[in-house]
Amino acid sequence: MSLSFSAPALQGARQSHALPDPTGRTCQLARDVAGAMLAVPAEDLARAERSRKQVCEARHVGMYIAHVVFQLPFRAVAEGFHRHRSTVSYAVRQIEERRDDGRFDELLTLHERRAEALRDQMAGASA
Predict the structure, then answer these.
(1) Which structural domain range is residue 79 located in?
(2) What percent of the residues of the chain are helix, what percent strand, and what percent coil, each to the nearest 5?
(3) Could you count the other beta carbons within 10 Å of the beta carbon of residue 35?
(4) Domain count of the chain?
(5) Is residue 47 part of a domain?
(6) By CB count within 10 A, which of 26, 90, 96, 126 is most buried?
(7) For 121, how many CA atoms within 13 A lie in the half-sphere containing its CB?
(8) What is the CATH number of the domain that holds 98?
(9) Can you tell me the mean pLDDT for 13-28?
(10) Closest CA to 55 of 18, 83, 75
């Protein structure tokens, strides 16, 4: 699995919603992890318009990782994913409910650990 560590321009994103680093990079990393987990291109998760179900599910995972693993508040996640704060709250609840499925929980746990390792690596690099 190859994850992008750069903060590429968000395709389809409105310029007024560009986040300063490190929040923008953190949301990009959450999209990369979620995209890798569900085999959806990370750039599809950054699009501001509505998407097909598979992309929406991956975006929900990305929002969950950004909030739970990277500890971003809902408002920052909402800006980073070009969605409303209430959408982020909904996405996090949806993912928490899906954790009752053992197979999904196992896959999410694996990717949470990878995201945590990346978070720790990024924190070490900035120290």
Answers:
(1) 20-126
(2) 70, 0, 30
(3) 24
(4) 1
(5) yes
(6) 26
(7) 9
(8) 1.10.1750.10
(9) 61
(10) 83
pTM of the full predicted structure? Answer: 0.79
Q: pLDDT band for position 127 (50/70/90)?
A: low
Structure-token pair, residue 28: 């990009």
Euclidean distance between CA atoms 122 and 12, whole angstroms: 27
Question: Which pLDDT tens digit goes with each residue over 45-58?
Answer: 888 777 889 999 99
Q: For residues 115 and 65, is the Cβ–Cβ distance under 8 A?
A: yes
Cα distance between the two ends of the chain: 26
Both tokens of 56, joined, read 């929406």
Per-residue CA distances from 90 to 59, 71, 98, 120, 126 (Å) = 12, 17, 12, 27, 32
Q: Which amino acid, one-letter code, is at 96?
A: E
Distances (CA, A) of 62 to 72, 107, 124: 12, 13, 22
